[in-house]
Amino acid sequence: MRQVPNIAGVLLLGFFALFPLVYSGGNYDYVMHVLITAFFYAILASSWSMLAGYAGQFSFGHMAFMGIGAYGTALFCHYFYITSEPTGICTEFAFFGNYFVIKNAIGVTSTTLDQDCLAQAVAVWGDSVSVRPMPVLMGIILGTMAGGLSGLLVGLLVLRLRAAYLALFTLGFSEIVKAVISAEIDITRGQAGLELPALFENGVSLMGTTFDKTDKIPPYYIMLGLLVLCLALLAWLARSRFGLFVRALREDQDAAAALGVNTTRYKVYVFTITTAMAAAAGAVQAHYVQIVTPNLMFLLQMSLVVAMAVIGGVENFVAAALGAIFLQILLELLRTSFTIGGVEVDMTVWRLVFFGILLMITLRFFRNGLIAPIIAYFYRSGMAEETVAKRKTGAPAS
Length: 398
Hints:
The two termini are 33 Å apart. The chain is an alpha+beta fold. A hairpin with a 2-residue loop joins β9 and β10. The strands form 4 sheets. It has a 4-stranded antiparallel sheet. A two-stranded antiparallel ribbon has the order 5-8. The protein has a two-stranded antiparallel sheet with strand order 6-7. The chain has 16 helices and 10 strands.
């Protein structure tokens, strides 16, 4: 019985791995988009579950770190290029026989060729000079590092705070990040957003099939792979000595400190790791949708991630991830309106009401979530009989 969750997990992973290859519905692109978005939210919900459910550090800044990852790769890919000749008008540095060029910031209204230094140079060069953008993978790595470093700095600053103080500080931090991005129009283009290259701008070949940059299969497997990687890392951490110390922080921080656990250090560790995961998800998602705006960091988005984790089971990161996937799919299914007694019910509005009711029911009657207790039931089944059998085996002969 205790192997049931493991078997179910392997089957579910196999289902998601094979789904794009066997599904052939007319709404293929839409369904794939929903699943890619579901995997994105699953990474956010599972990493937040490790932070809040395992370590007891309730943060409202998770979407801010996701946004830092997204904007980190967006700014890198938008402003930095490699050229074979110097422009003479941009900021540039010699780089292994080429030139590392930094475009000038021209904001959202100044888009003419006489203000974009690289565009001016390209207009003169034509096709005679090579102009190469930065690799997308490097942008994703730098965005992830930016999110993790931001998490480290914020953690060192605020993780001595507890409970509501930490939540309020991270909420304020999130709003500050969003406000700065919105205000720095010259660099970030504000609410107009920054455009990014696709994950595979020039297409990619998989298993003998060539996909262009608009195909859904490559980003689907990239996001699914990132989710599996994050869950594997979280599982390893949870079962290690690190996980033991982190759970000790949740149960009784003062008792853990009295036993010699450096509570601040481990809180900073878990905060940095989970924020880096959020940043990685944001960076990959940004290249998938090919635009980033400050709307990514609205408080409603953070509330959605928290609700997904709570409904799935905040003290189990696998359950939180499954809850995110299930709820994202459910929210899309609830977009379909219907008629009752001649009155049309617009589910594009009421679906969020349904979501809120489900959250309240979960908090009132299922405090460990809807999925986590099912997983725990199978893992704990037979433990009592096994314990009794061990005691009988170890009992002295009469």
